Amino acid sequence: MANSIIKKLKDSGLKGRGGGGFPVGLKWELAKKAKGKVKYVICNASEGEPNVFKDGYILKNYLGEVINGISLAMETISAETGYIYINSKYFKEMEESIKLAIGKRKIIIFEKKARYIGGEETAICESIEGKRAEPRKKPPFLTDSGLFGCPTLMNNVETFYYISKIAQGKYEKKRFYSVNGDVENPGVYELPEEMTIFEVLKKTGNYPSFDFFAQVGGGASGEIMIMEELNRPVSGAGSITIFDRKKTNVFALMEKWAEFFHLGNCDKCVPCREGAYRIYEMVKKKKLDYDILDELFLSLKESSFCALGRGIPIPFISLIEKVIKNEKY
Ligand code: SF4
Q: Does the first or last residue of the chain, that is N or C, have fewer Cβ atoms within 10 Å of its Cβ?
């Protein structure tokens, strides 16, 4: 049974839908083979980036499939206890329905109270252990040493949903896309996983009739794409946010991102903690000093402790290079 589900996962080619894209079958195999009497499974339901809400949609609409995926994981790697690490908003909205769906299974609902970075996988382990939600140095990876130092298998909500589909032979190589911003039909759509940004916008009746740019893969960390780049696949967390060029205040947009990174980082390392704050300070004043920004971006990319800090420059650089410099703000 355990080997057959791992084979099915490997054959499906399913990759983690939390943004990292690690092959799911391989992760399960590593967790199963890891040595340890006690093992854990964690479902990451901490989704908290602006304009990304597909995991919340899946929990509301397909909770049974998600719980089934978690149960399969517990059975496969011989974990007695599972956790659902869930953001406060979803916890408040869905605690009762999740409890009902869990039934007698030993799955604990753990409410995330940490900042945004508290959704990073090692920070989740720290948080459940009762410590500050800060990322750990990797390796060791979770499948060797995760929660309480035990082998731990963590996938996010969307991944567990598709694991359940694969186990039932019903996987059709789809994924969930959040589409929002200046669009006619905002919402969450389940569509083929290989679609381009252009195809998703057309298929969902959301391709704008005006001049626009898009933020793809996350409502803060996502890269800005201009109309000529829409033949690229939808990356990261599967979100597309459309901005009407005429209506969008680019400084207000950058201020929103900068505030998110400034308040959402964990304060552990200087490049990210100070860098996010300095960017926030600058964009609030609506005057960009490109020399200072270049230095801040370099230091964030080269010396941040974790991926959140290293990724902060992406939205800013892409907006500045593709939109701001071309329109001479
Ligand atoms: S880069 Fe540093 S401060 Fe930023 S979230 Fe990661 S560990 Fe925390």
A: N
Helix axes 157-167, 63-77, angle to 10 degrees: 80
Query: Ligand 1 mean position to 23 CA, how many Å?
Result: 25
Whether 328 has a pLDDT exceeding 60, the answer reads: no
Among the atoms of ligand 1, which is closest to the Cα of residue 273? 3
pLDDT of 235:
85
Say if 2-167 and 250-327 have the same CATH topology. no
Q: What is the Cα–Cα distance from 21 to 25, expressed in whole angstroms?
A: 12
Closest-CA residue, ligand 1 atom 1, reads 309
pTM higher than 0.90 = yes
Report the alpha-carbon distance of residue 292 to residue 306 in Å, rounded: 22
CA atoms within 13 A on the CB side of 120: 22
Cα–Cα dist 57/281, whole Å:
34
280 alpha carbon to ligand 1 midpoint, in Å? 16
Domain borders along the chain are 2-167, 174-244, 250-327
* Residue 139: cis peptide before it, omega within 30 degrees of 0: yes
**CATH class, 174-244 region:** alpha beta
CATH fold for domain 2-167: Rossmann fold (3.40.50)
Percent of the chain predicted with pLDDT > 70:
99
Q: Is 306 in the pocket of ligand 1 (CB under 6 A)?
A: yes
How confident is the model over 212-229, as a mean pLDDT?
A: 96
Mean pLDDT for all residues in the chain: 96
